[in-house]
Amino acid sequence: MVNRKELNPDSSPQAAYGAQLRGFREGKGWKQEDLSDRMEYSSTHISAVETGRKMPTLRFARGADRALGTGDLFERKCREIKHGALLEGFSEYVGYEGRAVEIRLFEIGIIPGLLQTPEYARVLADTAVQRGAITPEQADERISVLTERQQALERVRPPMVFVVLDESCIRRSVGGRAVMEPQLERLVEFAAAPNTVLQVAPFDMGERRSFNLPVHLLTQSDRSVAAYTESQTQGHLDRETSSVVPLLTAYHQLQAEALSQAASVAMIEQVRKGTP
Questions:
Q1: 58, 184: one domain
Q2: What is the pLDDT of residue 274?
Q3: Quick one: 169 and 215 in the same domain?
Q4: CA-to-CA distance for 96 and 206, rounded, in angstroms?
Q5: Is the pTM of this model over 0.90?
Q6: Which end of the chain is more exposed for a tag (fewer CB within 10 A), N or C?
Q7: How confident is the model at residue 256 (pLDDT cuts 50, 70, 90)?
Q8: pLDDT tens for residues 2-43?
Q9: Is residue 143 part of a domain?
Q10: Residue 244: which domain range?
Q11: 14 CA to centre of own chain
C-alpha cells in the first residue's frame, strides 16, 4: 500500500490505540475513507489518530465503536489514555460509577475521592509528585478526574451513596489542621444529605471488620452490581455474580458492625474539635 506508515503499538498508549483502530478497520476490509463516511470524521483525521499524531476524543471513540461494532472498546481505551495517571482498571470503573444508582464504598487510611475537598485531594496528589510516583501534570490530571467524578453525581436523580470509613480515615492527618478541619466538616455535610449514609468502622471493631482492603460496589439501573478493588499498583473491576455477591454480603455485615450514622458523626465532630 502506498504511503502506508508502519505502526509500533509498544511505543505509547496512543500508538497502541491507533494500531488497534487500524486493525479493526482493515479487518472489515475498509479504507480510511469508508470509516470516515460512517464516523463523520475526515479520513485525514482518522489517519492522524491511527498513526498516533492526534489524540482520540471521547466523541471520536464512541463514533468508532458505533461504526466498527466494538461495544465500548475504543471509549474505554480512550479513557485509559486520558486517565494515564490512574491505576489500571480505574478508568473503566469511573464509567460505571457515573451511571450507578447505588454506590457503596469502604476505605482505609484516606477519605474516599468522592468525599474529598479540593485541598485534601491536592495534598495527596502533590505528595505523590514529591515521592516521584507521578509527574506534576499527572497530579493535575488526577484532580481534574476527581472533580469530574464529583460533578457527575450532582444530577437530577443522584445515586444513593453508602460509605463506611475505617476510623483511620478520620484520624490520619493529611495536610495538617488547616486541611483536615474543612475535610471533616465536609463529611458531616455529606452525612446530612438525603441520599447518603455515612458510618465509621471503629478500631475496636477488631477482627469483625469484614474487609482489609478498600472496596467499591456499584449497582446499575438494571440492578446488576460491579465490584472494584485495588492494590497499591493495580485496580480490578469485576462483574461476575459469583465474585460480587460475596462482597455485597460482606459489605452488609460491615454496615451492621459499624457505628450508626449518628454515632459516626459524633466521632467525626470529636476528632474535628480535637477532643478525646
A1: no
A2: 85
A3: yes
A4: 32
A5: no
A6: C
A7: very high
A8: 456 676 766 667 788 888 999 999 999 999 999 999 998 999
A9: no
A10: 90-114+157-273
A11: 20
